[in-house]
Amino acid sequence: GLYGFMDGETLQPGVADLERLSGASPAGPRVEVNVSGDLVALPAAIDAAVFRIAQEAVTNALRHARNATLVDVRVAGDPSTVSLVVRDDGDPGPADSAPDAGFGLTGMVERALLLGGTCQAGPCPGGGWAVSATLPRRVPA
């Protein structure tokens, strides 16, 4: 959280740092970050995972999306979960031109599963690619 540096742990980027991902990338699409709902007092592991998954998904989109103009990052918190969707508006392509699912994605999915959540990625209807993750607000014991 905000005062993580006071309890002696190395400060991991979290939800509060998502704005860092926004802006125009030199290579192309604009990245927009929308954060809504209740995201205060998240456990450090969840906070960090949201940032890492978003960062990985944005990196993938900037690297692989064809002719995308926008990468839309949405994070929303409710009383029991935090959900994340990262979507680009790149050209639809044949399945074999989709980014290799093993690239970066495996780490995101494993990170989400370890925390008791889910993460999946795939083409959107009408083009583009989306990564969505849902994480519980409580880390499993």
Question: Quick recap of the structure?
Answer:
By secondary structure, this protein is an alpha+beta fold. It has helices at about 45-65, 105-115, and strands at about 25, 30-35, 70-75, 80-90, 120-125, 130-135. It is globular, with a radius of gyration of 15 Å.
Describe the structure in your own words.
By secondary structure, the chain is of the alpha+beta class. The protein has helices at residues 44-64, 105-114; strands spanning 23-24, 30-37, 70-77, 81-88, 118-123, 129-136. 22% of the residues lie in helices and 28% in strands. Helix 1 (44-64) packs antiparallel against helix 2 (105-114). Residues 1-8 have low confidence and may be disordered.
How would you describe this structure in keywords?
141 residues; alpha+beta; six-stranded mixed sheet; 2 helices; disordered N terminus
**What is the tally of helical segments?**
2
Q: Please give the largest β-sheet.
A: 6 strands, mixed
Cα Rg: 15 Å
Strand content: 25-35%
> Can you give the helix content as a percent range?
10-25%
Biggest sheet strand line-up: 1-2-3-4-6-5
Unreliable stretches, pLDDT < 50, 5 or more residues?
1-8
State mean pLDDT (0 to 100 scale). 85
- Given helix and strand content, the structural type is alpha+beta
End-to-end separation in angstroms reads: 20 Å
The strand count comes to 6
Shape: globular
